[in-house]
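Quick board copy: two proteins, each given as sequence then tokens.
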Amino acid sequence: MKFTAKQIAAYIGGEIIGDENATVCTFAKIEEGTPGALSFLSNPKYTAYIYDTQSSIVLVNSDFVPEKPVSATLIKTANAYESLAKLMTLYESVKPKKRGISPMASVAASATIGEDVYIGPFVYIGEKATVGSNTIIEANTSIGDGATVGSDCIVYSNVTVYHGCKVGNRCILHAGSVVGSDGFGFAPGANGYDKIPQIGIAVLEDDVEIGANTCIDRATMGATTIKRGVKLDNMVQVAHNVVIDEHTVMAAQSGVAGSTKIGSWCMVGGQAGISGHIKIGNQVKVGGHSGVTNNVQDGKSMMGYPAFEHTQFARASVIFKKLPEMYREMDALRKEIESLKQQLATGKA
């Protein structure tokens, strides 16, 4: 499907600089642009590429002023990156979607299946499970007994939604993700560790996206809850009874221990760890590789292990590099002080 610069500008509310009839049918990075491609420029580091790109149309921020001629048609917009996301969403929405239930799928007679769904080969839909309308479930996925997957979802291959768990509308579950595996609950006994049954569920509210191989444990009792608009990257671990509030994002290989509550609009960097039974406020930022072990107030930026405020961490990082030199100076001063003490004691000072 082709789109003209005029159509694109009307859709995103942009201003055309160049040929309004220029057409595109695909996307490309600005440094890899080809005729018929749409690119964007939002990071000043890539400005040099706009003068040589072969892309037909380039989205730019409204304050962009070229220093020399540009062959591509430009569309100025308040936020080029945001506009690109909007266009890519439109592009995805008009692509043909799969429909129908594969004869190689296993769908329980008691399951409720909405309209215009796609259920791929070797999918299992359990007893009394529910799948909403317009949802796509790719091959080898398992939706357990009594589980619910809402409408307009995309569930990729090899996903497992355990029994009784709930996935809201417009959610995306990437390959290998697991919703509702047992929480890590064991009680030490005379002969080892006795398993504590995990009788709760895991709940994903609307517009949640879960990355590949991410695991969300079911609650010991009650529910592990991922609230509306949360985005979790690949290989994230969410333990039992955790609550992650609306629109929080967590990067790859980060993890949250049991019964911790994370506020809304938080950002957690890659490989960060958050201890159990603590509360993280709203709009908190946790830097990559950090370890949070205590409650954090709203709006704080944390870094380090154990994590402390980012501004303090930045100042401390400067000192870290100088510690060996500072130690040598301190040791020399200590020896000098001891020598002076001895001289004073013997009256030779």
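And the next:
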Amino acid sequence: MSHIDNHLPRQLQGLRLPFVAAPLFIISTPALVIAQCKAGIVGAFPALNAREPDGNPPLLEAWLTEIGEALDAHNQANPDRPAAPFAVNQIVHRSNARLQRDIEICHRHKVPIWITSLGARPEVNEAAHDCGGIALHDVINNTFARKAIAKGADGLIAVAAGAGGHAGKQSPFALVQDIRDWFDGPLLLSGAIATGHALLAARAMGADLGYIGSPFIACDEANAVDAYKDAIVGGSAEDIVTSSLFTGVSGNYLRRSVELQGLDPDNLPEAAPSSMNFAGGSAKPKAWKHIWGAGQGIGAVKERVSVAEMVTRIEREYLAMGRELTQEFA
């Protein structure tokens, strides 16, 4: 059942629920993405997750082939319940030496949805359009949102306070309001969305879709160690700390993972912007291998389940709350 407005591009229509599963560094691999798409929501992974030793063919090529073949097989076997499309996240920052190669691979495989982060680059948007895809850019404020659209992005992902990883500082209410004041295109909202109730609230405030990441860390198909999954299940908003130490950009992380590295989560030094490093430095723990990213909504995750069970739980909450509100205000 689709709950998506018809003004959205075709890649974002016909979804089981109005949300995209956020690409999770290290955690999102073909197994997770395929399960998410089969469950009827957009699955996504960072291109940089496909890491390989020197040699050919690149692992990204193999991953895209695996995902494409699995979704094609699912669609042939389930014509009445086709899989949702998938997305690839490109880190569009000067430190990403693989960017041009990965763009060429994604273009060749006709990736339907491109998500760009940490920089807006017209040539990436053009590559997405040239192969029939759309480009969504994540932003933390209205200034970056305007720049992204001016450079050719089709839609925006508003990353508000409370989101996992590199989160913004603004309230989701304020951020969506400011963007919607001038932009009527596809708008996704990220920031502590872990329930169907929160997803419905995101739509009520003006977002077309939610952008959900942290709950999927605890799923069976996620490429996360057991301790990480257990920390998600056992955690709450109070277990999230914010620091720029690990990548040079402010991010939200699980307190327990910081403590396990012998650091005091309440007294972490700030990093200079020039120290930006998404692989982590040899002198400090690596994000997200040692320091685990997570958003403030993890208190809603009570158990480790499959992707299918997670999506079903969010759907049940979303539809029930929609019915309740409809009756209350009828």
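Board note added afterward: The domain at 15-224 is CATH 3.20.20.70 (TIM Barrel).
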